[in-house]
Input
Amino acid sequence: MQVGHVLEAMPSDGARPMYLDRIACDFPDLKMIGAHTGWPWVDELLSVCYKWENVWFGIDAWLPKYLSPQIVQFINSRLGRDRCIWGTNGLPWKESLKQLCELGLKEEVQRKILRENAIELFKLDKEKVHADDISINLEETPFGRPVRQDGVTAN
Output
């Protein structure tokens, strides 16, 4: 769900992240992603994510170098690493991925927000995601391209 300001010529207050609080309460089985970081109400989105296990934090619509310190701290936290999901919202994905890798996130956190959390959130079949034979080493590959265990860079 779009949370935060909107670029269109319309009021943004309807996209305040705190509105997810009521939806999460009324529909506890509904999984939601608070997309676009909730800016300028980042703390509201973080608060809702801490409160409700069915609300996920969407890291998209902003290049990672522009993420606020509280977002980076949340991503690296015990709760955040399990409920954040990365996307681009049309931004150059290679540059976004490169910047994400430069944030100094723990390797486990990178793996979760780039792959494992999406598998869990969308209930994907791990076997069909083609990652059992791929290990991702974001530091050693340009723009985080996956490398198979035999060392061949995947396309």
Remarks:
- The radius of gyration is 16 Å.
- Helices lie at 19-26, 42-51, 69-76, 93-101, 107-121.
